[in-house]
């Protein structure tokens, strides 16, 4: 959770009042009814950064806020209260619960952000298009077919979600942009990067997150007959159910043979599987 900060028009280079950009009148205008005054007026929670250098030299930080307090108390009924950062954070997110989760923007689209970005990072490492699903429409096949093209490269595989990054749709989003970019190799001049995550299609948080980080990229959606997709889901569920039930039964027998304690969840799963298999055999043999 990050509380947004307000600007007070003081930066590292604004240390001497007589050398303030545009003249000291610009700073005074901001304090006396301008942007700084309006920050207090329209925000119930304020966090200001004045930069350390402004507490020395001409002491612009102290000058600015001393004058701002006097102006506020003279012309408004506002009363300011200081609270520790932790308390301030709780108060802010109680007021604005929709801001509890961050939304990552693209640093490559902001000149100031780009200037302070590490030289090791490359804006071209963001994907040019994203395949968003939905599931069971052939997205994995498309992923492999696209990778066959010499000038098209996908994201690197994930150790947990295989060919899908699943960044915009789940907890991976809170790992940040650096984590996301680590899945994409630095492309050559004529290489097109893409990613495929079928979990993006039906998650409400995805459109806003995707639009904010990759506003000008292309979105690929595969549409097929809903009946065919439902049948594909059924076949997948049928296969995985059998696979995991048999795996659980093998684990049960192994622990039993080794005389190791068997977890309760495994006992229930194995008992259920044995019961279903017994019924199937009874029906098969006509018992």
Automatic annotation (TrEMBL):
<keyword id="KW-0378">Hydrolase</keyword>
<feature type="domain" description="Heparan sulphate-N-deacetylase deacetylase">
    <location>
        <begin position="1"/>
        <end position="37"/>
    </location>
</feature>
<dbReference type="InterPro" id="IPR037359">
    <property type="entry name" value="NST/OST"/>
</dbReference>
<feature type="domain" description="Sulfotransferase">
    <location>
        <begin position="127"/>
        <end position="248"/>
    </location>
</feature>
<comment type="pathway">
    <text>Glycan metabolism; heparan sulfate biosynthesis.</text>
</comment>
<protein>
    <recommendedName>
        <fullName>Sulfotransferase</fullName>
        <ecNumber>2.8.2.-</ecNumber>
    </recommendedName>
</protein>
<keyword id="KW-0325">Glycoprotein</keyword>
<feature type="active site" description="For sulfotransferase activity">
    <location>
        <position position="136"/>
    </location>
</feature>
<dbReference type="GO" id="GO:0016787">
    <property type="term" value="F:hydrolase activity"/>
</dbReference>
<dbReference type="GO" id="GO:0015012">
    <property type="term" value="P:heparan sulfate proteoglycan biosynthetic process"/>
</dbReference>
<dbReference type="Pfam" id="PF12062">
    <property type="entry name" value="HSNSD-CE"/>
</dbReference>
<keyword id="KW-0808">Transferase</keyword>
<dbReference type="InterPro" id="IPR027417">
    <property type="entry name" value="P-loop_NTPase"/>
</dbReference>
<comment type="pathway">
    <text>Glycan metabolism; heparin biosynthesis.</text>
</comment>
<comment type="similarity">
    <text>Belongs to the sulfotransferase 1 family. NDST subfamily.</text>
</comment>
<keyword id="KW-0511">Multifunctional enzyme</keyword>
<dbReference type="GO" id="GO:0000139">
    <property type="term" value="C:Golgi membrane"/>
</dbReference>
<dbReference type="GO" id="GO:0019213">
    <property type="term" value="F:deacetylase activity"/>
</dbReference>
<dbReference type="GO" id="GO:0030210">
    <property type="term" value="P:heparin proteoglycan biosynthetic process"/>
</dbReference>
<feature type="binding site">
    <location>
        <position position="232"/>
    </location>
    <ligand>
        <name>3'-phosphoadenylyl sulfate</name>
    </ligand>
</feature>
<dbReference type="GO" id="GO:0015016">
    <property type="term" value="F:heparan sulfate N-sulfotransferase activity"/>
</dbReference>
<dbReference type="InterPro" id="IPR000863">
    <property type="entry name" value="Sulfotransferase_dom"/>
</dbReference>
<keyword id="KW-1015">Disulfide bond</keyword>
<dbReference type="Pfam" id="PF00685">
    <property type="entry name" value="Sulfotransfer_1"/>
</dbReference>
<dbReference type="InterPro" id="IPR021930">
    <property type="entry name" value="Heparan_SO4_deacetylase_dom"/>
</dbReference>
